[in-house]
Each structure stands twice: as structure tokens, then as C-alpha cells.
Design goal:
Layout: H1 18-29, E1 33-34, H2 35-38, H3 44-49, E2 54-57, E3 61-62, E4 72-73, H4 83-94, E5 98-103, H5 114-124, E6 132-136, H6 144-152, E7 157-159, H7 169-172, H8 178-191, E8 196-203, H9 209-221, E9 226-231, H10 248-261, E10 265-268, H11 280-285
Parallel strand pairs: 2-5, 3-4, 5-6, 6-7, 7-8, 8-9, 9-10
Antiparallel strand pairs: 1-2
Helix pairs in contact: 4-5, 5-6, 6-8
């Protein structure tokens, strides 16, 4: 199905309910950003109703301008030193057992914001009944020292999305590098083999099945443990258009393929995003 009216399987209801409102209130009270809001995630209703959210650190302005992303790009503000403790307070108030921390890309910072990630992980580890922690990181321009700061903070999962196939990078991820992303995942595993690594890919941008399979093989080759596969949804007319809406059965087929290739856990479906059901593989291991 080509771009235009979205098919029925992609339609979600409007946000409602006391738990949704409470989650939104806690996030607002602590002056935090969430990727749920900034990236126009279609699962915000489901996640907020479950009193969970993916926190986005280092501000809400990105230094890159990826064609698929709704996050504002431009010149960001100085990192907020009090943000890690406010996130810890919000996570404690939400009583989260699993928390995902992501960020805008901060090419303006010497470490790409890696130290701020580490500070946030440290703050979360101070919570009573410490939650499992996933860090969904940018590529840090491939800098190993920056990556090592996150690895040395010992999150449970380090996630970094390849997003699409190599042939589409110039249009979808200008400023990024497919090989650099693969090497980042491989380096994280080399630095600490006990930390699980994770990546994600969007479909519907014009990729072929053979290209998707090639990405799966490359991720397995980098030591990647977990994978998410979702449908690209155009967040605004300013973003690149959808080339095709994939049927749910296609996602199920790709999930089976990825599992057969060796991924420990795969989430696949039209509305799947990086953080969707992120706690499942870690809960299964405990």
C-alpha cells in the first residue's frame, strides 16, 4: 500500500484516562522531555496509560536533520546538570521497573553527550529497587572514548538504531553512517560482553527484502542481541514520504526470519518503535 490514507491497522485512539494524565503530569512537573511527545510516537497513549515513558535527555533540539524525524533541529541549549536527578525522581514516582533513556544528537559537545548519559544512569542506580536501564544512544561520531563512558556506567542494554538500509542513508539519515553505526554496536559489545545490545530498523522507505536481510546479517555480525522492526510513519509534510505501508503479516514473517538468524528477542509490527515493549527481553532473563 502506497502513501496516502493510512490503513486500519495503523490507526490509534486519542489519549484518554487518569493514568495517561498522571504520567503526563509527572513528566511535566519534573520538566522533562520524552521521545513519546517530541517524536510524535503512535504508542504514546498505550505507554502513558501504562505509566511509562521514554525520557529524552540533553534538551529537545537536535544538531542533525534526519529526513524521517519529527524532533526539532538547530542550535541546542547547554546541557542541564540537574536533569539526571529529575529523571531519577520521575522514574521513582512512576515506579518504573524498566527505563529507557535516549537523547537528541549533540554533535556540538566534545563527548556527544556521553557523560550526561553516564550521569543519568548513575542517578537511576541510586533509586531504591533500582530499575533495569536501557540507553538508546546516538553514534557519538564513532568516538570510542565517548562510547566507553556509557558502557562504563553499566546499563543493562545499550541500543543504537541503524534505522534503514545503506542505500537510503543519504536521504533518510544525512550526517550518519551505516558502517559507523554497526561499528558502534560491535565496540559496545567488545567493551563489555555482559551488556546486551539492541538496534532497530524502519520499513516503508523504499528498501528491498534483500536489503533488509542484509541489515539483519550485519547486525548479527556486530553481536547485536535485540532487534525492533517497525513501519515508518511520516510525522509531518516536511518529512520524507512513506513509500509503502507494510501489512502486519510481512512484519511477522520478518520477525521469524530475524529470530532464525540468531537474534535473542525481536519486536516487529507496524507500530513497533525502539522502546516498544523494551522490558520484555530483560524480564525474561531475570
Amino acid at each position: 500500500m502506497r502513501d496516502g490514507g493510512r490503513p486500519e491497522w495503523l490507526k490509534v485512539g486519542a489519549p484518554i484516562g487518569d493514568l495517561y494524565d498522571r504520567t503526563e503530569s509527572i513528566v511535566g512537573k519534573h520538566r522533562l522531555n520524552t521521545v513519546c511527545m517530541e517524536a510524535v510516537c503512535p504508542n504514546r497513549r498505550e505507554c502513558y496509560d501504562a505509566m511509562t515513558a521514554t525520557f529524552m535527555i540533553l534538551g529537545h533540539i537536535c544538531t542533525r536533520a534526519c529526513g524521517f524525524c519529527a524532533v526539532v533541529h538547530g542550535q541546542p541549549d547547554t546541557p542541564d546538570a540537574g536533569e539526571p536527578e529529575r529523571i531519577a525522581a520521575a522514574v521513582s514516582e512512576l515506579d518504573l521497573e524498566y527505563v529507557v533513556i535516549t537523547s537528541v544528537t549533540r554533535d556540538d559537545l566534545s563527548d556527544g553527550g556521553a557523560g550526561h548519559f553516564a550521569s543519568t544512569v548513575d542517578a537511576l542506580k541510586g533509586i531504591d529497587g533500582q530499575p533495569a536501564i536501557e540507553t538508546l544512544i546516538p553514534d557519538f561520531k564513532g568516538d570510542r572514548w565517548s562510547l566507553s563512558q556509557v558502557v562504563d556506567s553499566h546499563p543493562d542494554v545499550i541500543s543504537h538504531n541503524v534505522e534503514t538500509t545503506p542505500s537510503l542513508y543519504e536521504r533518510v539519515r544525512p550526517g550518519a553512517s551505516y558502517i559507523r553505526s554497526l561499528r558502534l554496536l560491535e565496540a559496545a559489545k567488545d567493551m563489555n560482553g555482559d551488556i546486551k545490545t539492541k538496534s532497530g530498523i524502519m520499513l516503508g522507505l523504499g528498501e528491498t527484502i534483500s536489503e533488509i536481510e542484509s541489515v539483519f546479517r550485519a547486525l548479527i555480525g556486530s553481536g547485536c542481541d535485540y532487534l525492533t522492526i517497525g513501519q515508518y510513519l511520516r510525522p509531518s509534510p516536511a518529512n520524507i514520504p512513506v513509500r509503502e505501508y507494510m501489512h502486519p503479516e510481512r512484519f511477522e514473517s520478518l520477525k521469524n526470519l530475524a529470530e532464525d538468524m540468531g537474534f535473542i528477542h525481536v519486536e516487529a509490527g507496524p507500530l513497533v518503535r525502539s522502546s516498544y515493549h523494551a522490558a520484555l527481553p530483560v524480564r525474561q532473563r531475570r
